[in-house]
Amino acid sequence: MSLPSRVPHKASVAVTLGSAFSKKAPKGLELEPICIATPWGKAKLYKVANSVNPHPGYIIFRHGLPHETLPHLVNYRAYAAALKELNCAALLVTSSVGVLDEITPLNQAMLVSDLLMPDNRLPNGDLCTMFDRLKHDLPLSETLQFALKPGHLVLKSGLFSARLNEQVSQILKVRNIPLIHELTFAYAPGPRTKTKAENHYWRTLGAQVNSMSLGPEVILANELEIPCSALVVGHKRSLANKSSSLIETQTTPQSSTQLSLETSKVQDEVIAMSQSLSQSHSEFESLIVNFIQTASPVTFENYIYRFSEVKS
Prior knowledge:
Blueprint: E1 12-17, E2 31-38, E3 41-48, E4 57-61, H1 76-85, E5 88-99, E6 109-111, E7 114-116, H2 142-147, E8 152-154, H3 162-174, E9 184-187, H4 196-204, E10 209-211, H5 215-223, E11 228-237, H6 256-294, E12 303-305
Helix pairs in contact: 1-5
């Protein structure tokens, strides 16, 4: 289904899903695919057809469904522009993350309070901004025409909306999930995993969790004045002083027998990774459905400073 991008839309809510939903959508949601043309290409989203929420609900599978797009190839700008066209006023971004310490729990949904992304770049090296050009080849809708006027994102309240966080916190409370009040997320673009030195670097800077997504989505949404919250689930520990393996490993001589054992360990590791993402899926699923069915739009708490709008 192709959705026209010229018709004003009622304020909507949306969720971005990642690797935990690589094979199947959240249970209980009837999804209708839609395609929206943007200056950065077409974006495929899914409208929740059976939502009881008076505000339309949309789902983004950032890697596709099934999983086919690695994190460094995700068209983050196209997704952000599509959400703006759909008048999204409450966005929940999710990610399965590596945990950088021994205290932060695994397999538990956690609300992100801050972001570490000092280089502010997309995986291809471009600056992470919607304001990447002065003119667009594609005719813009009235909505995007204004939203894409270049400006500075001024973080008055932070990247994560306090008002939207209150709604998500209430969903966690109903599920009896303890709230972690200060959780800093570090963005590392991938597609490889991090070295021990890199994990130590992020931890030293104050991050408790990291992954290969989420950061760009939150920044670009804020530039388009879309309020954001972020939920993450730790599916492995990525410690600076230990192997990030999900199973125990030992140093052994590299005989043919040992090489065979090492191959078996790698296979076990792949299975363990798949199982950990499956656990993340289970933890996220009901929370996402709850958000889509109950979330309401909130006012954007930051602002875009545009010199063209300053009156002398």
